C-alpha cells in the first residue's frame, strides 16, 4: 500500500498553469555533478541551482550549477556568501540573454520531497525567487531501470497552504477548525524538452567523445578499473599494464557506427520493455478471478479502452510486413544490385583515373628519351663532317 506524502499537495493551485521548458544542458550538468559526487564519495546532499528566464508563468531552465551547503541548527541550507558570489559570476557570464534563479535541484526518494528539503527551498523563495521551482532527480529509478524510457526527474511548484486542526468543544460536540500558520506544499507540473542548435551540436560532440572515455588505476589502492575501450590490471611494479586493447582514438566512422548501434539498442530495449508490459497486462486480465473487480464499471471500461488500443496496434502490424514476400525480396535484391553497380562504377572511374596518370608519366619519359637521342645524333653528325674535312674534333687523339 502506497503511503501518501504529506509534502505533496492534493489541492488545485489557483492559476497554476506553469509552462516549463527544460534544456538538455541542465540534464548533463546534473548528471555530471551526481556522478562526481558519487565517485568521490563526498558527504552531504546533492544540491544545485537552476538558471533560466521567467516571463510570468512561462519558465525556461537553461543552465545549472552545483552549490555549497552548510549545516545550521541541524538544518541543511545554502552557504549564503558563497552562493551570492557564484550567482554574480554566473550573471556576468550569461548577460545576453540575462539569466536568473528560477529554482534549484536535488536528489529525491521515490516518495517525493521531504521536510529536510524545506530550509533550502524557503531560503531561495525568500531571497531570490518567490515562485522558485524544485527539480527532483530520482537516482533509484536509474539504478533499477524502472523509468521505461522516461527521464528520472520531476519538476515541482510550491504553494503555501494553511493547515487545519479540528477541536471538539461543548456538550454538543461542536467541531471548530483552527487555521495554523501556512506550510509549503509541492505539486508536480509538466514540462517540455527544448534543444537549441548550438546545444544539439555540443550534446552530439559529448556523446561521441564518451565512446573514447577511459579509466586508470588508483596506484595507492592498486584496484583495477575497467572502461569501455581499455582494460587494465596492475603488474608487479605497481604500474598500469594494458591488456587486450589498442591504444588509439576511434575514427569518425567508428564513432558514428557506435552511436548508431547504441541508439538502435536503446530503441530495441524500450520496445521489449513495452511488449513485456502489454504481455503482463494481458496475463493479469486472463488470470483475473476477482468478481468485484470485473463488476467495477470504471475498471472494466478502462480495461476495454486498453484492449481496443492493443487490438488496433496488432491490426497495424500487417502494414509493416509486406503481403507479397517474393516481390519484396526481388525489390530488395534489385536495390542491392543498384548499390553494388554504383560502387563498381565508382571503382572503375578511379581505376581509369589512375591509368591516365600512368599514361601521362609514360609519355613524359618517352618524349625525354626522343629528345636525348636527337641531341646525340646532332653531336655525332657534326664531328663526322669535321673529321672528313681534316679538322680534329673534340676527343680526337693527336698523333
From TrEMBL:
Biological processes, Gene Ontology terms: protein deneddylation
Q: One short Pfam family name for this protein?
A: JAB
Under PROSITE patterns, the record lists: MPN
Gene Ontology terms for molecular function? metallopeptidase activity
Domain of life, source organism: Eukaryota
Keyword 4Fe-4S assigned to the entry: answer is no
Return the annotated region ranges for Disordered: 376-399
Signal peptide boundaries: none
Mainly resides where? cytoplasm
Q: Which UniProt keywords apply?
A: Cytoplasm, Nucleus, Signalosome
* Compartments reported by the entry: Cytoplasm; Nucleus
Question: Per its UniProt record, what InterPro entries does this chain match?
Answer: EIF3F/CSN6-like_C (IPR024969), JAMM/MPN+_dom (IPR000555), MPN (IPR037518), MPN_CSN6 (IPR033859)
- The MPN domain covers 20-162
Regions of biased composition (Polar residues) lie at: 376-390
One Gene Ontology cellular component: COP9 signalosome
What family, per the record? Answer: Belongs to the peptidase M67A family. CSN6 subfamily.
Could you tell me what this protein does? Component of the COP9 signalosome complex (CSN), a complex involved in various cellular and developmental processes.
- The name this protein carries in UniProt is COP9 signalosome complex subunit 6
**Protein source organism:** Erysiphe neolycopersici
Amino acid at each position: 500500500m502506497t503511503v501518501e506524502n504529506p509534502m505533496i499537495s492534493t489541492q488545485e493551485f489557483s492559476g497554476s498553469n506553469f509552462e516549463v521548458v527544460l534544456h538538455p544542458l541542465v540534464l548533463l550538468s546534473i548528471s555530471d555533478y551526481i556522478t562526481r559526487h558519487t565517485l568521490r564519495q563526498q558527504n552531504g546532499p546533492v544540491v544545485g541551482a537552476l538558471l533560466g528566464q521567467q516571463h510570468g508563468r512561462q519558465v525556461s531552465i537553461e543552465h545549472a550549477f552545483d552549490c555549497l551547503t552548510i549545516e545550521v541548527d541541524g538544518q541543511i541550507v545554502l552557504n549564503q556568501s558563497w552562493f551570492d558570489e557564484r550567482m554574480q559570476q554566473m550573471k556576468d557570464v550569461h548577460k545576453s540573454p540575462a539569466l536568473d534563479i528560477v529554482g534549484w535541484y536535488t536528489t529525491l526518494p521515490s516518495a517525493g520531497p521531504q521536510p529536510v528539503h524545506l530550509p533550502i527551498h524557503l531560503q531561495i523563495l525568500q531571497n531570490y525567487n518567490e515562485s522558485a521551482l524544485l527539480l527532483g532527480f530520482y537516482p533509484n529509478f536509474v539504478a533499477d531501470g524502472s523509468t521505461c524510457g522516461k527521464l528520472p526527474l520531476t519538476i515541482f511548484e510550491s504553494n503555501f497552504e494553511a493547515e487545519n486542526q479540528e477541536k471538539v468543544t461543548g456538550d454538543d460536540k461542536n467541531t471548530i477548525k483552527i487555521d495554523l500558520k501556512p506550510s509549503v506544499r509541492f505539486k508536480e507540473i509538466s514540462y517540455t524538452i527544448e534543444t537549441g542548435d548550438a546545444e544539439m551540436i555540443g550534446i552530439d560532440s559529448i556523446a561521441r567523445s564518451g565512446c573514447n572515455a577511459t579509466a586508470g588505476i588508483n596506484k595507492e589502492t592498486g584496484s583495477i578499473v575497467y572502461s569501455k575501450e581499455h582494460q587494465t590490471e596492475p603488474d608487479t611494479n605497481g604500474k598500469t599494464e594494458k591488456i587486450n586493447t589498442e591504444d588509439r582514438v576511434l575514427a569518425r566512422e567508428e564513432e558514428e557506427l557506435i552511436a548508431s548501434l547504441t541508439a538502435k539498442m536503446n530503441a530495441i530495449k524500450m520496445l521489449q520493455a513495452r511488449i513485456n508490459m502489454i504481455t503482463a497486462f494481458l496475463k493479469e486480465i486472463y488470470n483475473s478471478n476477482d468478481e468485484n473487480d470485473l463488476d467495477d464499471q470504471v475498471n472494466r471500461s478502462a480495461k476495454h479502452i486498453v484492449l481496443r488500443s492493443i487490438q488496433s496496434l496488432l491490426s497495424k502490424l500487417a502494414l509493416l510486413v509486406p503481403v507479397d514476400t517474393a516481390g519484396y525480396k526481388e525489390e530488395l535484391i534489385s536495390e542491392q544490385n543498384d548499390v553494388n553497380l554504383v560502387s563498381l562504377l565508382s571503382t572503375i572511374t578511379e581505376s581509369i583515373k589512375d591509368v591516365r596518370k600512368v599514361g601521362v608519366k609514360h609519355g613524359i619519359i618517352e618524349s625525354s628519351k626522343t629528345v636525348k637521342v636527337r641531341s646525340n645524333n646532332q653531336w655525332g653528325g657534326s664531328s663526322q663532317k669535321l673529321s672528313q674535312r681534316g679538322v680534329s674534333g673534340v676527343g680526337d687523339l693527336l698523333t
